[in-house]
């Protein structure tokens, strides 16, 4: 009887170890950086993207070399994501972004300089949400950051 119990324990430990190993390898967390992305990331050209919606009086100005090139050449086109999807992701990203702005001892204050005032009760429109979402994706991929539970993929 003792040998049977030992066999069961050994089998159980083996199965658990196998499951842990399989869960650790999982799928890739981010997609590979393409040559087109690398070119956008290394661009030194002055690049300013204005995100605004006159109806909501909302405006963000992003001064990030390469972002506009990346937005035009790499990002999914407008209409690919629904506005609801973009709003939900932006809420999560903004919360984490603002947390990192506040925690300067834990996160690089050169990366996270200013808080973003994003009110989930305001309809900022599709374009604002689209560009803000894509900036978060660009930022995460360029600086190897992860602002939420989702891998920054294109």
Beta-strand portion reads 5-15%
Distance from N terminus to C terminus (CA atoms, Å) equals 57 Å
Task: Provide the succession of SSEs.
Answer: HHEEHHH
Mean pLDDT metric: 80
Number of helices: 5
Unreliable parts? 11-28
Strand and helix map with partners:
Layout: H1 2-25, H2 35-41, E1 48-53, E2 58-63, H3 67-73, H4 83-102, H5 126-143
Antiparallel strand pairs: 1-2
How would you describe this structure to a colleague?
It is built from 5 helices and 2 strands; from the N terminus they run ααββααα. It is mainly alpha-helical and 154 residues long. A two-stranded antiparallel sheet has the order 1-2. Strand 1 and strand 2 form a beta hairpin. Helix 2 (35-41) packs antiparallel against helix 3 and helix 4 crosses helix 5 (126-143). The protein is globular, with a radius of gyration of 21 Å. The termini are far apart.
For the structure shown, list the relevant keywords:
two-stranded antiparallel sheet, 154 residues, mainly alpha, 5 helices, single chain, 49% helix
Describe the structure in brief.
The chain has five helices and two strands.
